[in-house]
Amino acid sequence: MTARSTRRTTATRSRLAAVGSIAVAGALILTGCGDQTKDSGSDSTDTATSAAPLADKLPKEIRDKGVIKVGSDIAYAPVEFKDSAGKTVGIDPDLAAAMGKQLGVTFEFENGTFDSLITGLRSDRYDIAMSAMTDTKDRQEGIDSETGKKVGEGVDFVDYFTAGVSIYTQKGKNTDIKTWSDLCGKKIVVQRGTVSEDLAKAEAKKCTGGKTISIEAFDNDQQAQTRLRAGGADAGSSDFPVAAYAVKTSGGGNDFQLVGEQVEAAPYGIAVAKNDTQLRDALKAALDAIIASGEYDKVIKKWGVEDGAVKEATINGGK
């Protein structure tokens, strides 16, 4: 998860700028969401049952459909990804399934490129976006972090995890790279619209002596990993859980190595349209419920990302 964080444009995501790819024993991961109308309805209290105790908190339209459409970049293991059978798995899908039991609905993940998820949310293609998306003030306010210009009304976030951004290299190579400043004069591969891309651009401006950082951005993190694996770059960067998972699993652990410390630790958030406060609050209630019940910890431990666990859900906790 992602600094896909940290991708900090309207669709930027560090994806955490946060704890990333970790042994997520279940699948690698990614996701997104959209917005919903608010209508509690006079019969809302009848929908809450012992099987779905929080159903009455959802907007009536969603209760009636029984589905929450989730926009997600499903190529970001272990947060969200496709397993060998083509099933969407990972941290986000598992958490969503647990939340769905509280709310009495199914979370349906729809694949999309990370930098298009918030746009899809605004156009009602998705109800929410859940995809290791870093909660940032820029995203909350609809500001393009690169230009500083407003590009939309922004979104609200329900924060559920914390992660930072990491650098990784081919195993045994480029041992002189330890920090972001060591990338001057080097080439790095990243996922487009992520915090990793933002950090690389910011660091390139600090380079001296006629050097810069060559940045190659891809639609998804797997493409970036493929380029690095083939020797087409000196380093790669993604959210720590994702980078750690790639280091552990790619080539049986022989392809990559993590270098330096993770930076830019920040919360992952579920993005919800600004005008959809009822859905936002229902999601927070569901997250708090699975945290209290222990279901949240089970998912986090399953994927080996305990360091990023939170004690309670937070709304718009990003900076």
In short:
The chain contains nine helices and 14 strands. It is of the alpha/beta class and 319 residues long.
Question: What report would you give on this structure?
Answer:
This protein has 319 residues and is an alpha/beta fold. It folds into two domains: 2-164 and 265-306, 3-Layer(aba) Sandwich (D-Maltodextrin-Binding Protein, domain 2); 165-263, Periplasmic binding protein-like II (D-Maltodextrin-Binding Protein, domain 2). It is 26% helix and 24% strand. The protein is built from nine helices and 14 strands. The chain has helices at residues 60-65, 91-103, 117-122, 137-141, 195-204, 221-229, 240-249, 277-293, 295-302; strands at 2-3, 4-6, 14-16, 67-72, 81-82, 88-89, 106-111, 128-129, 155-170, 187-191, 214-218, 235-239, 256-273, 314-315. Strands 4, 7, 8, 9, 10, 11, 12, 13 and 14 form a nine-stranded mixed beta sheet that branches. A hairpin with a 7-residue loop joins strand 2 and strand 3 (14-16). Helix 2 (91-103) runs antiparallel to helix 9 (295-302). It holds the Pfam family SBP_bac_3. This is ABC transporter substrate-binding protein. InterPro entries: Solute-binding_3/MltF_N (IPR001638). Residues 67-307 form the Solute-binding protein family 3/N-terminal domain.
